[in-house]
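Input chain follows. Return C-alpha cells only.
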Amino acid sequence: MSTDTIDTAELGEKIVKVLKTIYDPEIPVDIYELGLIYDVFVNEDYDVKILMTLTTPNCPVAETLPVEVEEKVKSIDSLKDVEVEITFDPPWSQELMSEEAKLELGLL
C-alpha cells in the first residue's frame, strides 16, 4: 500500500463519530442519526466536504450548526480542510431519520 493512499473508510468512520457528537438543539438526537448529513466527500488531499441540511430553512441554528460541524470535523488531525454546504434539496423529513432516532423520539 503506497503512503499516498488514504484510508477513506477509516477517515469516514472518524468523521461520522464526530458528527454523532453534534446535536440538533430542538431534538435530542445527533445530526447524523437525524439524517441531516446527506453526504461526506474526502479527497486525496484530505479535504472534506460535507453536504448537510437543517430540519427547516429557518432553523434557529442555521447560522451556528454548520460552523459547529466544520469546527468539530476540522479537529480530526489528518484533515486539511473542511467545507460544509447546506442544501434543502431534498428537504429534510422524518423519513431520513435512522431507526434509532425514530425509536428515541417515540416515532416507532
